[in-house]
Specification:
With 164 residues, the protein is of the alpha/beta class. The chain has one domain (2-37, 78-162): 3-Layer(aba) Sandwich (Rossmann fold). It is 28% helix and 26% strand. It has 5 helices and 10 strands. The chain has helices at 14-27, 51-58, 81-86, 112-118, 149-159; strands spanning 2-8, 32-36, 62-66, 71-75, 92-96, 105-108, 123-127, 136-137, 140-141, 161-162. The strands form 3 sheets. Strands 1, 2, 5, 6, 7 and 10 form a 6-stranded mixed beta sheet that branches. Strands 3-4 form a two-stranded antiparallel sheet. A two-stranded antiparallel ribbon has the order 8-9. The termini are close together.
């Protein structure tokens, strides 16, 4: 499984980039999965008062909801990144927002001030809003998700983690 990680602040272009990468691999017939780290305290995966919520409140550690179009697995705790990856079966895993994980990554940014806070030794590519005004930052290529997707894919395939 190829694991592709992108980090950045809100509205920096992470989702735009990862959607383009997802479309690329999906069009090749690859099974693509996505994990998004959600930082908002108001995030609630289950609606209060519904049956699945009540099972969680009663102490169930895992609740599975299956509907006509979706199946949702809800753990009543935050899983570590490695626990999450261990539960995914896919050819490609898209990871968004895990800033604390020390793994190869693309940093998305609106401007160079944000890059100063995010770029580290794990960064192999920069993308996002900043790609409209820059092509390089401290020796790291700055690429646009729409215009430069082939170059981004080449970097992804040479730098991202492959997990068996």
């Amino acid at each position: 499984m190829l694991i592709i990680n992108a980090i950045g602040f809100s509205q920096s272009g992470k989702t735009t980039l990862l959607e383009a990468i997802t479309r690329h691999y999906s069009s090749q017939g690859k099974l693509v999965a996505a994990i998004k780290d959600i930082h908002g305290e108001e995030f609630q995966p289950d609606e209060e008062g519904k049956d699945t919520w009540q099972y969680s409140q009663a102490g169930a550690q895992l609740v599975v909801g299956r509907g006509p179009r979706d199946t949702i697995f809800h753990w009543s705790r935050q899983l570590s990144f490695l626990e999450l990856v261990g539960k995914v079966v896919a050819d490609v895993l898209i990871v968004e927002g895990f800033k604390d994980e020390q793994m190869p990554r693309i940093v998305c940014s609106k401007d160079s001030e944000e890059l100063a806070d995010l770029v580290d030794s794990c960064t192999y590519c920069i993308s996002g809003v900043i790609s409209e005004e820059s092509t390089e930052y401290e020796g790291i290529p700055v690429l646009n998700a729409e215009r430069d997707l082939p170059q981004i894919i080449a970097l992804v395939e040479s730098h991202s983690v492959v997990c068996e």
